Amino acid sequence: MSLIRLNIKGISYSQTQNGAYALILSEENGSRKLPIVIGAFEAQSIAIALEKEIMPPRPLTHDLFKTFANRFDIVVKQVIIHKLLDGVFYSSIICERHDIEEIIDARTSDAIALALRFQAPIFTYEAILEKAGIPSELDPKTKELPKDMEDIFEEIITEVTPEIAKPTKEDFSKYTLKNLKKMLEEAVANEEYERAVGIRDEISKR
């Protein structure tokens, strides 16, 4: 079976379920999107790998794994999402050390977090995209996900996540740019990465 390369489109946060995220992957030469429900820690780790401006003061678990792998000459060559069973995606990390290839079973969220750090490609099979892929494009005017697709993601998240109280979203618009930059440094230093991303977004708007 031929492999289909996937790219990360973004992370969709549930508006009703605290701590639930959908990692949105898209096929490289097509329009289908593959939403994968992940936890808050994994979403944070993936977001930090995508956001080059945010550098944790101490290594996260996936950063530690990369340092460990580098020290022992282990390279992550690619990640393959190879199975979908009862709504759960199964993945393999293809590693190489001294020209010897190894296949390691991993949670899809962990595998993707590591793929980003090693700049390794992510693949899946046509059968998985056919079963779980959603054919949709970004709205050409707003460049955002169509409302019906957002509803689908929300439905997926709601089905697999227990109901928890929704957190209060902090409003950063009232702070000056100078204060925001200081707050960003403090948030990163305190490992409040979700808050740091919100602050960074407000700075980018300015």
Description:
With 206 residues, the chain is of the alpha+beta class. The protein folds into two domains: 3-164, Bifunctional nuclease domain; 168-206. Helix content is 39%, strand content 29%. The protein is built from seven helices and eight strands; from the N terminus they run βββααβββαβαβααα. Strands 6-5-4-7-1-2-3-8 form an eight-stranded mixed beta sheet. The chain starts with a strand and ends with a helix. The model is unreliable at 156-168 (pLDDT under 50).
Give me a quick take on this structure.
The chain has 206 residues and is α+β, with helices and mostly antiparallel strands. The protein has 7 helices and 8 strands. The protein is globular, with a radius of gyration of 18 Å.
